């Protein structure tokens, strides 16, 4: 499972996105950014977000 924390992307937000693939994370992040923060994710921004995605610790 992969994870992206919204706060890591520079927002004052505790949202955490989890999905199986990087593509799913980026799709969910784009939707979250638009609906919650009013920000459209550009291709350049998506490339930067990829470096913030990490593997979740398995219990």
SS content category: alpha+beta
Q: How is the biggest beta sheet arranged?
A: 3 strands, antiparallel
Strand order of the largest sheet: 2-1-3
Distance between the termini: 11 Å
Q: SSE string, helix = H, strand = E?
A: EEHHE
Q: What fraction of the residues are assigned to beta strands by DSSP?
A: 15-25%
Discrete helix count = 2
The tally of beta strands, per DSSP, is 3
Mean pLDDT across all residues, rounded? 94
Low-pLDDT segments: none
Protein name: Small metal-binding protein
Label this structure with key terms.
59 residues; alpha+beta; three-stranded antiparallel beta sheet; 2 helices; 41% helix; globular; DUF1059; Small metal-binding protein
Give structural notes.
The chain is of the alpha+beta class. The protein has 2 helices and 3 strands, in the order ββααβ. A 3-stranded antiparallel β-sheet has the order 2-1-3, with helices on one face. The radius of gyration is 11 Å and the shape is globular. 41% of the residues lie in helices and 17% in strands. The chain has one domain.
Write a concise synopsis of the structure shown.
The protein has 59 residues and is of the alpha+beta class.
């Amino acid at each position: 499972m992969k994870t992206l924390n919204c706060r890591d992307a520079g927002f004052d937000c505790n949202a955490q996105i989890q999905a199986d693939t990087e593509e799913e994370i980026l799709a969910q992040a784009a939707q979250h950014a638009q609906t919650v923060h009013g920000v459209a994710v550009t291709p350049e921004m998506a490339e930067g977000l990829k470096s913030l995605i990490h593997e979740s610790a398995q219990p």
